[in-house]
Input
Amino acid sequence: MEKKGAIELIDLDKSYGDNHVVDHINFSVEKGEFVSFLGPSGCGKTTLLRMIAGFETLDGGDIRLDGVSIIKLPPEKRNVHTVFQHYSLFPHMNVYDNIAYGLKAEHVGRSKIQEAVKEALKIVSLEGFEERMPSQMSGGQKQRVAIARAIVTHPSVLLLDEPLTALDMKLRKDMRYKLREIQQQLGITFIYVTHDQEEAMIMSDKIVVLQGGHIEQQGIPQELYKNPKTAFVSDFIGETNEFDGMVGDPKGDAIRILCESGDFLATGFSFEKDEFVNVSIRPHRVQWSEEKVPGFHLHGHVTDFIYTGSLVTAVVMLRNGRRVRVSRLGGRGLPKLNQIVHLFWNPKYAIVMKNPVGDVAKMTGMVKFPEKI
Amino acid sequence: MIKRKHLSTGVLTVIGILILLFMYIPIIVVVLYAFNADSVNYFPMRGASFKWFAKMAADDDLIRSLEHSLVIAGISTGVACVLGVTGGYGMYRFDFPGKSFMNKLVMLPLILPGILTGVALLTFYQAVGIHQGMMAVILGHSTFLIATVLPQVYSRLQQLDGNIIEAAEDLGATSSQTFFHVVLPNIQTAIISSALLSFTLSMDEIPVTYFLNGIFSTLPIQIWGMTRNGITPEVNAISSLIFIISLAAILISNMLSKED
Output
């Protein structure tokens, strides 16, 4: 199947009064890509989606679909369809008529409509549901009808606005794989808006992390997970332990970071001594020992365990109350409750990032951290 | 303590029943008298008969006035529905300065005394050259009936999931396709219910009609004229008919407006 639906967002800009919801965004999606806009509520991701759909006007910039500007077209003229968060099926039509609607609006012949609806129902695995009314269906089924309705006219791009949020957990997990499967089958571009990083990680070819109307970072999921550029991204993508601290002396390949709970080694480039930074270390990368480890002064005691499926996490409380999570599959090799432990890790897994606040020490003349604890 | 509570509910029930009786006994009496075998309204009745209904059906003036009323109510309800629905939809889709003010303003004809509306319409129509008669009455009724249709339609639209309109446009429907395929079916109960209400309001409207009718009669004006020489059983018969039809219309209207 021929892939289609390349989208370019060029210097997109939008404000509501003083609220700069979309701040000069540049971004491109290749044909047949599954891209997620990921961010907290209010980050501008839904506005961006609605701009592409044609429901929002823009203050500046351009949107191109397969090379052609679409910003002057009304929603009904754009070859872009939306799957809404709350399904928004037509309540007075049965499943067949809901799905057929886009084709009927285009005055497609009856036999062709029947064929296309059948095909769409097959894709979302809802064969035999033609006569059902939306009110007689479960949330998951309605969502699949909404998807069928949006794909039946073969759009170049499908926009999905947090389509799984209204579903229960189990269904949500199944639907992730189903959506990815449908996208692969159709070969069209999916732009998926979500605040759930797990969803985005599982389904996407590319993730765009949005914050405050601008792109915080974009890339393939593994890249964002391994090399977050900002504390915001590392916090948003996957579980992480975060430290804010100050750059001490470089020591070999690693740099020493001082924080209020002690000091440790991490990896970072082009950071100056005494610069304020954020450091992210994933819970499964944190190791522990009963004795001191050279280069690390972080000790505390285990206060709690968290069980999330196969992963068990020990919570270690450091000096000054900072909590660090240590995760192991099946809980193998975790310390005991109340055990005193020294934490350390391979410095290459502790990522140093710029502190978004800026150089706090220089601004406030803050207290010096102790060299040794 | 418990006893006193029982006592107060008992008293409340009695008062409630008395209020209902106070409201409905007159109507019950009219309906009963419509079947009176006698020509004098007197209680207890000495027999029952349908003859007043027969006499009513044979009264040409009465039937003609009924026809007038039906035509006026039918057309002005239609006009009010078209204007009320398009107006309500416009207010729903577009934001414009003074929208909330307009929403209140449109209710005014319902609140204003009919006599004031009547005088105002008569003065205005004379100024623009619309003569008293059927046309003037239809225009007048349409004007104040918009006040029943527009707010009901507007409030139903506000309960609607606005995304279904976007969904239709998203799927390639033009604005008129969206309106007729998606919006209208979802507000039709509100339209039917307000149309029924409008129809009954128009059917028994006197003050505005009286200013605008000129020489012809509508049903309520005809009945009013007939009662000048005492209430005849014929009037009771037509009143009972109107009562039953109005009751049915109001009940249907109520049922529909409760529906989601």
